[in-house]
Amino acid sequence: MTTKTTHGRTSTTRYRTSGWLAFAGTVALVIGAFNVIDGLVALFKDGYYLVNENQIMVFDYTAWGWIWLIIGIIQIGVGAAIMAGQMWARVLGVIFAFVVAIGHLAFLVAFPLWSVLTISLCVLLIYALTAPPPGSRAD
C-alpha cells in the first residue's frame, strides 16, 4: 500500500492481489528446480539421456549442464521475486520462460518427456505473468 498527498488531500492506493501471480511465482520456482535438476544430471550422469553427446543440438552435455544449472538458479530467484510482487521479476520471468522453452526445443532429442513438460510449464508461466491486471501483486 502506498500513500501520497495531492493538493492537501491524502489518498491511499491499494494494490490488487492476484492468484495468477502467486501461481506464476510457484511455476517459476518449479521450472527453475527442473532446470537445476537437468543441469546436475547433465553434469554428473552422462548415460542418463537417450542420445549420444554428438546427437544433441548445439552443445555437449557439460555445456548444457552448466547452462541449465545457471538458468535454473536465476529462475528460482526470479520466482521468489515474482511472489514478492516485483515488476522487474515479471518481465524477467517472461524472458526466461521464452529462453527456456526455446532451449528445451534444442534439448528435446535428449529427453523428450521432460522437455515437453518444461515447455508446457513455460507457456503456462508466460500466460500467468501476462494475464494479471496492472498493479496487482502476489501477496
From TrEMBL:
Keyword Transmembrane on entry: yes
InterPro entries membership: DUF7144
Membrane-spanning parts: 20-44, 64-84, 91-107, 113-130
Keywords for this protein: Membrane, Transmembrane, Transmembrane helix
Signal peptide: none
Pfam assignment, any one: DUF7144
Domain DUF7144, chain residue ranges per copy: 20-132
Protein name: DUF7144 domain-containing protein
Organism field: Actinomadura meridiana
Organism lineage: Bacteria, Bacillati, Actinomycetota, Actinomycetes, Streptosporangiales
